[in-house]
Every structure is written in C-alpha cells, then in structure tokens.
Amino acid sequence: MSPAPDRARTVLGRLPVPERKAVAHALRTETVGGMLLLAAATAALVWANSPLRQSYQAVRDSHFGIPAWGLDLSVAHWTADGLLAVFFFVAGAELKRELVAGDLRSPATAILPVVAAACGMAVPALVYGAVASAGGGTWNGWAVPMATDIAFALGVLAVINTHLPSALRAFLLTLAVVDDLGAILVIAVFYTVGLNLAALAGAALGLGVFYWLHQHRRVHGWYWYLPLALTIWALTHAGGVHATVTGVAMGLMLRTDGRHRPVKGTLEHIVHVARPVSAGLAVPLFALFAAGVTVSADSLRAVLDRPEPLGVALGLLLGKTLGIFCGTYLAVRFTRARLDPALAWADILALSVLAGIGFTVSLLLSELAYPEPAQADSVKAAVLLGSLAASLLATVLLRIRNARYRALRDEENHDPGPGSEPRQERFSGPPTGAAASGNRRT
Question: How many domains does the chain have?
Fold first, then answer.
C-alpha cells in the first residue's frame, strides 16, 4: 500500500514571476520613501533639539486654511490629517490589490498574513495594557504600538543591505497593509467625537459619486477626482471623523483587472502615480513635523519611569515580535501548512522584530490618544525608542542570515519564469501531492 500523498501547503515559497515583479516595484518606491522618512525624522530631531527649536515649534504650530469651512489648521494638523490621507489611500489600494490578486484573494493564502497581523496588533495592545495597568497608568494609548511602518522597515533593510527574499518582503508588505486597515478602523471607531451627520452624509454622497465615475463611467481625468477627493476629505473632517478614513475608502473603490501591469485608469496605474507622492512627500513631511520631540535625560527617563510610554516601547519591541511570530506559528501549525524548506523560523523571528518599527501610524495614534503636548511628546519618544530598538535587533538577526538570503535572491534572479523547476524539488526531494501540480503559490 503506497503512502498517503503529502497534502501540506508550503507557505512563503517563491512568488510567481509577475507577482514578484509587482512586489519589487511597489517595495522599490517604498524603500526610497523609507530613506526619505529616516532623513526627515533625523532632521526633525536635530531641529527640535538645536538652538533653533523655537523656530521648529513656530513653524509646526502656525495656522493657515479657510476658517469659514473649519479648516484653519496648524501645519502639524495639515500633515497628519491631510497628507496622511494620501498614505492611507495607497494603503487602501494595496489592500484592494491583495484582495483581488494577492495573498488575501483566497482563504487558503489569506489565513497566514491575516492571523499574523491580527496577533501582531492584539498582543502589543495587551502588552501595553499590562505594563500601564501594573504601573497605575491608563489604557489610553493601547492602539499606539499596533502599527507596522513598512517604509521605515524597508529603509532599514536598505541601510543594512540585506538580501531578503521576495516572499518575505511580500509577507512584510501584506502584514503592513492589514495593520494599516486595523489602524484606520481603530481611528474611525475610537477617535471619533462630535459627529456632524449632515457633513458625513455629504461625504458618503461624494464617495458614491467617486465610485460611479470610476467604476461605471470609467472616467480617467485627474481633474475630476482631485476636486472631488478634496471635497470628500473636507466633509469628513467637518463630520468629526478623522479625515484619513477617506483615503482608505477611496483606495478600496479603485477598479482593478487583477493583472500586475499599470493599465490607465486602473488601480495599478493610479497607485503607480500616487505611491511616489505618498512615500516621497506625504509621509516624510508628516515625520518632519511629528517626530520633533525633545531628547534629554529627563525625557528618556520618563519613558522608563512612566507606565504609558514604557508600555508603548515594550509593545513595539516585545508585543509585535511575540504577536507576529506566534500568530505565524499557530497559522502554520493548525492549517496543515509547512514553512518553505529554504527558510527557517529564525527568519520569521527576524521579520517579526522588524515589524516592531511602528513609526508613522504610531506617531499619529499617539497624537490622537494624548492630545496634551507634554503627554504626546513622552509617548512619541517611546515610539522612537521602541522603533530604534526593533531596528537594531532586527539588523543583528537579519545580518546573521544574510549569506543565505543572498543565495536565495541570486536563485530568484536566475529564475527563467513560469514553468521553471519548483523550488520544493531542489530542497525537499521529489514533489508529491499538491506540489506535483506545479502550484508553488499555495
């Protein structure tokens, strides 16, 4: 009697060539954006701790806008509510692409990143709550350590010159996309006060017009959508909901044909245009006016002495690592899946630590959770320290495996494309069961 075929699914295996190219293109822009983000955060810290610190505060707190429309906002407010809407628009579009043509298109492929991301949001919140409660603090900042900053993480990867395989990069991207969706849901549900139903109804009507023009009329002209998007954003802001929600909503409404090439008018083409604006302008400008906290012995001591900042720092460093690693292990353990033989659980651990970089969205959530500047600055300092610690630890773990990553990347670069030999055959013997069908992306 022949043995039963091996029906285990291989996860985090080599991507098909079209998807690999799409991921590489998306991450290339995010990597450049990550470098700009690092530069902007450094500039903010230097400016805010130099003899010119008063000029930094004056620029950050200066107001402009249209008071009659309730839009007389500070520079910091414009970058947080306005420019980050572009960031969340790209995140919403990426989520839509993942739902149509990526890892989230079917339950079999979605369960791993969704479970990992869910645990990677829940465990940091619980770590924060445990630390804050033990120290007599509040739960106000429970959402701050939940997010992963994909641009900052990729900037770190670029600095340390690691050769992370495309499957791990795609996994990190999907984690960040799901994280961003969770963050925007938290913002919409927990940081919404004083609703103006008339303004929200107008915003909903505007979204309906956006959907009709894009999906049914197939209108391509940006001059239609830009004024409409600004109107929807302004109405959402006036309605009492954080205006970045509009970005995700419009991103999810984009039309895609499920292919990876940017056909004009489709999600791929729009993201191709919008991603450089998000990564190269919106996020760095937000970092410039959000990361400028005063660094001193007293501020660093406050991170360790006060329960809320300490909870944020430990939530990013320990909570993210435990959440994503344990979530990934549980998803593999209970779904008849197996990790790709070319990888090791040490790679998942390193990636989990890297996901503890929660810079951009964590800074935004810290401002929402702690409106008082004194409280917000100590929590922002905790975000910076937690992200820095995660960056340094991930660098050590990734560099240990860098020679292995280089070999895998070289192998990917010489892949002749569809129909080439599945990697499982080279690493785990003759293919059986599902592997014999040639479906490497399971």
Answer: 1
Handedness of CA 110, 112, 115, 118 (dihedral sign): negative
Q: What is the DSSP code (8-state) at residue 3? A: P
Domain contains 440: no
CA-wise closest residue to 84 among 270, 243, 222, 231:
243
Q: What is the pLDDT of residues 35-63, one digit of tens each?
A: 888 899 899 999 999 999 899 999 998 98
Tokens of 106: 């079917």
Query: pTM score, two decimals?
Result: 0.82
Q: Distance (Å, rounded) from C-alpha 106 to C-alpha 152?
A: 29
CA dihedral 113, 116, 122, 128 (to 10 degrees): -120
At 216 the pLDDT is 86
Residues 6+ apart with CB under 8 A from 225: 210, 213, 214, 219
Instruction: Please give the Cα distance from 134 to 343 (Å, whole number).
Output: 38
CA distance 379 to 386: 10
Q: Assess contact for 192 and 242: CB atoms under 8 A.
A: yes
Domain limits for position 370: 27-57+72-191+242-413
Task: Give a yes or no: residue 229 inside a domain.
Answer: no
Which of these, 4, 6, 8, lies nearest to 332 by C-alpha position? 8
Task: Return the CATH number at 182.
Answer: 1.20.1530.10
